[in-house]
Structure formats: structure tokens, C-alpha cells
Amino acid sequence: MARAIVSALGAGVSAGSIVSFVLPLAIWPGEARLTAPLFCRAPYPDPMVVSDTFHDSEGTSVNYTLYCVSERGALTDEGFVLPFLTLFAAHIVLITAVVLVAVLWTRKPSADTPAATGAVEL
Q1: pLDDT (tens digit, 9 = 90+) per residue, 58-75?
Q2: What are the b/e assignments for 51-75, b being 16+ CB within 10 Å?
């Protein structure tokens, strides 16, 4: 059991790290909106992710920011680091859980267990 947990945790951390850097930064920056219940409080319930692109002599850079907006258009800047770290942890937990379930599901009993040897215990 400990071996399965270590395997799942290793896979979860490595795959979760890759997913956490590729998904919210390159594929779907709006994923940060999923963290709105943690960061957007009344009277600013509506999440919005804004992309700011800057061009300078060194190239182009893009910053993403989570804003929480009220019904009247007032907003609060929640940044991107805390939502990103929350998603990072969520990805690791999710992938670790999936790998752990898969490892436990496909695990075969060891050869010395009664089920593997066909022995019946009375």
C-alpha cells in the first residue's frame, strides 16, 4: 500500500506540475476563474481573467490577472499567483487521486496470500 501511495504521489507531483504550467498559462488561462469562490467575496462575485500583453525590446510578455467584479463594474485585483498556486495544488491532488485509484484497481494480490494460492482457511 505504501508503495502505491508513493508511486501515485510521484506521478501526481510530476504530471500535476506539467499540467499546472501548461494548462493555465498556455491553453486555458480562464481556468483561474474556477478559483473565484475562494477569492471573490461579496459584493464582487463575478470572476474575470484579463490578459495583458507587453511588447518591449526584449520581446513580448503576457500577464494574466484575476479580477472580481461587482454588478456596478467595481473590481478588485486578486492577482494571478494565489489562484495559480491553488490550481497547482488542485492539479496535483486530482492526478494523484486518479493514479492511486488506477494503481489500486490494477494491483494483483501477492503470491503468498490465500486468494492467490487457492488455499481455503477454515
Answers
A1: 898 888 899 999 999 999
A2: eeeeeeeeeeeeebbbbbbeeeeee
Q: Which domain holds residue 36?
A: 2-109
Does 34 map to a domain? yes
**Residue entry with cell 477454515:** 122
Query: pLDDT by residue (tens digit) across 9-49?
Result: 888 888 888 887 787 777 888 888 999 999 999 999 999 99
- Single-letter code of the amino acid located at 66: L
Annotate 73-119 with DSSP letters as a single string: S-EEEEESHHHHHHHHHHHHHHHHHHHHHHHHHHPPPPTTSHHHHT-
Cα dihedral sign for 82, 83, 84, 90? positive
The number of residues in the chain equals: 122
Per the CB < 8 A criterion, the answer to whether 102 and 108 are in contact is no
Tally of domains within the chain: 1
The verdict on residue 6 lying in a domain is yes
